[in-house]
Design goal:
Distance between the termini: 28 Å
Strand order of the largest sheet: 1-3-2
Order of helices and strands: EEE
Shape: globular
Number of helices: 0
Number of strands: 3
Number of domains: 1
Strand content: 25-35%
Structural class: mainly beta
Length: about 55
């Protein structure tokens, strides 16, 4: 499964395959989590570590 990071500027990451929003229901998005967009693409997502101090 592919692993992607996203920046804190986005409330939800965008699917790297179709650009749909990927809902995040994690309390701590800095920990890797599995998300599925509305089109059914599934990947591992994690908040970019450089944004941890925001």
């Amino acid at each position: 499964m592919e692993h992607f990071t996203y920046t804190a500027e986005f409330t939800h990451p965008l699917c790297p395959y179709c650009s749909s929003r990927v809902p995040c229901d994690q309390d701590d998005p800095t920990e890797p989590w599995i998300g599925t967009c509305k089109s059914g693409h599934t990947a591992v997502y994690e908040l970019d570590g450089e944004d941890d101090n925001l």
